[in-house]
Amino acid sequence: MTSAAPAPRIDRFGRIRVAPERRNRAVPVFLVCAALAAVASLVYLDLPWAKLASRAPDLGDVFWKLGHLDFARWELILSATRETVCVAVLSTFYGMLLGLFFGMLAAENVLRVPFLAPIVKACFTFLRAVPTPVWVLLMMVCVGMGPAAGIAGLCVHTTAFFTRAFAQSFEDIPGETLEALEATGVGRVGVFLNAVLPSALARVVAWVGMRLEINVAECAILGMVGAGGVGFVIANGIQNYEYGTAGVAILLVFALAYATERLFVCLKRRLR
Amino acid sequence: MPPDRALPEAVRAERRAYALFFGALLLVVALCTWGVAFNPFELFGKGDAFWTFLSEDFWPPRIPQREGRLEAILAGIGVTFAMAVASATVAAVLAFLVALFASERVSPFPRLAPLVRGAATFVRNIPALVWAFILFSSLGIGTGVGFVALTLSSLAFLVRAFAETMEDLSQDGLESLLAIGATFPQRVAHGILPSCLGGFVSWYLYSLEVNIRASAVVGMVGGGGIGLVLFSYIKAFNYHVAFFIILLIAALVIAVDWMTGRLRKELAL
After folding, report:
1. Nearest Cα to Cα of residue B248 among B216, B207, B205
2. How far is CA A115 from the centre of its chain?
3. A10 strand-pairing partners
4. What angle, rounded to 10 degrees, do the helices at A147-171 and A197-222 form?
5. ipTM higher than 0.85?
6. Does residue A16 fall inside a structural domain?
């Protein structure tokens, strides 16, 4: 019998080495670098640890007060929550419509106008890189307070997100499908409507679900930077020492985010 | 309809599912439009004001000339970046330790695992900004509190991500380690770390990307850094400088996204 197994490698302590040879050496180097960067950052930030620690007992106090839920102003909280949900849904919807349009422009394989796709992609990379609250603040300057500013501001970031996601989904469609349709004389927009969009539909739905989840969370914080909605109730409640009201609103935000997450987890399971 | 009948059952079922989904979507959108009395055409009516704002108030970006202003902005960018790196890393280390107790397969106390996961779910589903507000009211405002708020929310997110990475791991290796009497630290060091480290690093990079954006936002409500600087310029109607800062934030975010993308490729995750 020939033994197929190579002779065991024995290290200097007489132990058999079993660790796999092909281990990724870059990962430990990266981990050390990340740890060093974190330490450097903490030194640069120079956080007042002693002050933070001395105030830590107050934290329990605040949670204690938040826990004393006060339902006296539930009408205000409910109407604010309704506004938040509506803004989240509408911004996702209009973002989806715009995203489909710009996704078509940004996909390399749909219109094939020279330089169009890279330019559109670059523009939306910029729009995506700026945090949503900044857009909402600027929209509030333009169109005034109210849900319109929230919807328009959220739409900017949502559209940019969808443009990239949809363009990627469109580009993943095999070229043969498009060529076959084009050979029959269908125009480029026709190909998009009849071949690209239907075959990317499943992914479009998945992206919309994911973004709705994000937008619900984003929407809840918009009130804190000065727009309306449930975030305003939370910020106002905490600043005016109405902790009970803020506690109810925070629980509602949690319930909302959790329900959206569960809903889409269930949907994804059923679709699979 | 004859052409529909010709289609196989699976295709028809798929069409029904999509019709149902988009029908429900339209219904919800109609309800919401009614709920906030939003008229999309109203925005088009304000197109002129919008354009004036963009072309006159906003464009071009201006670097502030006053002594020390530019330095303050650059320092703000530095603080935001440092806050994101530090909070993501501290959260990743803590999340690794917590996640070991959040997975029934790994934890030495499987009974407690649902409790740990539940706590993480609760913290994760409340946005970072809400945590920041709660912390501000007790700890005061400042960079330190922004750092704690960011760490808290990324900790909760990473606990879930790390625990799921560990759940995906094949059970055989862990079981055989258990069978030969390996202790809990040994199981972690030899059973989990070698196969999950790549996944952990990938999630860590993701939370770094998220934290860069979040730290700019947390700054706006009092967490310090570039967000606070930007907020004060917007509140002072100094939009040219605000645009300059927005460009800087975008550059920072794009640079970090590019860096994490490169790292993912280099580390072959």
Report:
1. B216
2. 28
3. A16
4. 150
5. no
6. no
Does residue A80 belong to any structural domain of this protein? yes
Cis peptide before A118 (omega within 30 of 0): no
Report the C-alpha gap between B98 and B93 in whole angstroms.
Answer: 9
**Surface-to-core class of residue B41, CB atoms within 10 Å of its CB (0-12 exposed, 13-18 middle, 19+ buried):** exposed
pLDDT tens for B135-176 read: 888 888 888 888 999 999 999 999 999 998 888 887 788 888
Number of domains composing chain A: 1
Q: How far is A110 from chain B (nearest CA, A)?
A: 23
Torsions phi, psi for B107 (to 5 deg): -60, 140
- Segments making up each domain of chain B, as ranges: 2-58, 69-266
Partner-chain contact B35 A205, CB within 8 Å: no
List, for residues B26-70, the tens digit of each pLDDT value. Answer: 998 888 888 887 777 777 777 777 778 777 777 788 887 777 788
Which among B123, B85, B94, B81 is positioned nearest to B200, based on CA atoms?
A: B94
Across the interface, of B133, B135, B138, the residue whose CB is closest to A235 is: B133
B230 to chain A, closest Cα gap in Å: 9
Domain of A81, CATH number, reads 1.10.3720.10
Written as one string, the DSSP assignment of B72-122 is HHHHHHHHHHHHHHHHHHHHHHHHHHHHTTT-TTT-S-GGGHHHHHHHHHH
pTM for this prediction:
0.84
Residue B18's pLDDT is what?
A: 82
Out of 1.10.3720.10, 3.30.470.20, 1.10.10.60, 3.90.25.10, select the CATH number for domain B69-266.
1.10.3720.10
Higher local confidence (pLDDT), A11 or B166: B166
Within a domain: residue A132?
A: yes
Q: Do B143 and A62 count as a contact with CB atoms less than 8 A apart?
A: no
| Domain presence at residue A30 | no
